[in-house]
Amino acid sequence: MTTLNPEVEELFEEQGAREASAPPARTIVVETTAAVALGGVVVAMTTLFPHGESAAPAVLAVLIVAYALAALVRFDIGLGFTSPVQLVFVPMWFEVAPAMLPVVVAAGLLLEQVITVLATRRARHPLRMLSSIPDAWHAVGPALVIGFAGVTEPSFADWPIYVAAFGAQVLVDFSVVTLRGWADLGLKPDLQVRVTAWVYAADAALMPVGLLTAVAMVQAPAAVVCLLPLLGLFAVFARERDERIRQALQLSSAYRGTAILLGDVLEADDAYTGGEHTKGVVELGLEVGRELGLGSRALRDLEFGSLLHDIGKLRVSNEIINKPGKLTDAEWEIIRRHPVDGQEMLSRVGGALEKVGAIVRAHHERVDGGGYPDGLKGDEIPMESRIICVCDAYSAMTTTRAYRRAMSRADAIAELRRCAGDQFDPQVVEALIRVVERTPEADAPVPHLRLAA
């Protein structure tokens, strides 16, 4: 079953609504700026390469249509996508004058938008369709390399030039995409690297086939039509991938819904364990995870693990959980089983919650190996479990119960530091202290913090 990075998953979920809606003013400014800048580059290249010649208008028309058809075969990935356009784009290097290459590519992309709207009736705002113009920035890199090299016909002897052209394509495209994503949506460059890396890998894999097509077009310009069966095959793969992604999104939503439902069941069973305490651990745990630099997937597991860390207590009677006096040895044994019981319950759900079950099982382990149920120590304990352990203790110490008053923030921090290295991971303790000390004392014991996306 396909699984998605949570950040990429969020981008997928937003994509459909984003395409159908009118772009905000900021997007219009960013896209207009990118399009105007591209126009300026085209004008400059006209001056740099004044003697460049393009193929006959009929050949250009065929290339534009072929490019549009290739662009229709779309493999979406968050805000970006890849299409087998490299199959047609490489022949364009030799059939289109360098200065006109971005223009011809933009024409192909605009035609693809028109075909998509007419053939599929998929809603797309007209202003969003104009983003096809700055999408043609990737043509600038090869146009410059081919223009300066003076290449007019494909030859395998010139392969270093073609490698340089592809490198320039990736460099220019990634630079412009990163700037547009940052200026428009505030996307971090590292996320865009993860999203687009396989896009460029696909382009590199298709480039040799595109070069063979360019060689064939020297003798028979209509040879580009031979790419149509291959594009049809890619279209089948694209549809199957879209279906797998749709199923993955539905499954992820089901896991989140199941986790929230189980949390609600726990809260209904015991208002403190499943309510105030659990919510405090979730909120504080996520902020500590961010402080430690956890990735989005680990933060999602941490969120689910924090929400469900006490789910095994559903098998413990409320008389034991809320007993004001000292527990007997037999009662302690029942309590100490709740991490194992929690894992068993989540393993029955399976999928993403099965991994969360391992985190739940280990949330009472100690870094010195003296915890339960398995006596794990140090790095044997999942980082998410170590975070939950510290946040669980801090929340418990700073929350008033029927049988004791809450500790002050200072006393709770002192206790965490005293136990760091034995019960708690010192790195996690210091991260938690940095988080809570950024919160005004009036908001203590546990700040209200944003949840993971």
Explain this structure.
- This protein has 453 residues and is mainly alpha-helical.
- It folds into 2 domains: 6-243, Arp2/3 complex 21 kDa subunit ARPC3, CATH 1.10.1760; 255-443, Hypothetical protein af1432.
- It has helices spanning 6-20, 25-48, 57-72, 86-95, 101-120, 126-129, 132-135, 140-149, 159-185, 189-219, 228-269, 271-291, 296-308, 318-321, 329-336, 338-349, 352-361, 383-397, 409-419, 426-437, and strands at residues 75-77, 80-82.
- A two-stranded antiparallel sheet has the order 1-2.
- Strand 1 (75-77) and strand 2 form a beta hairpin.
- The model is unreliable at 271-275 and 442-453 (pLDDT under 50).
Summarize this structure as a short list of keywords or feature phrases.
453 residues, mainly alpha, Arp2/3 complex 21 kDa subunit ARPC3, Hypothetical protein af1432, two-stranded antiparallel ribbon, 2 strands, 68% helix, disordered C terminus
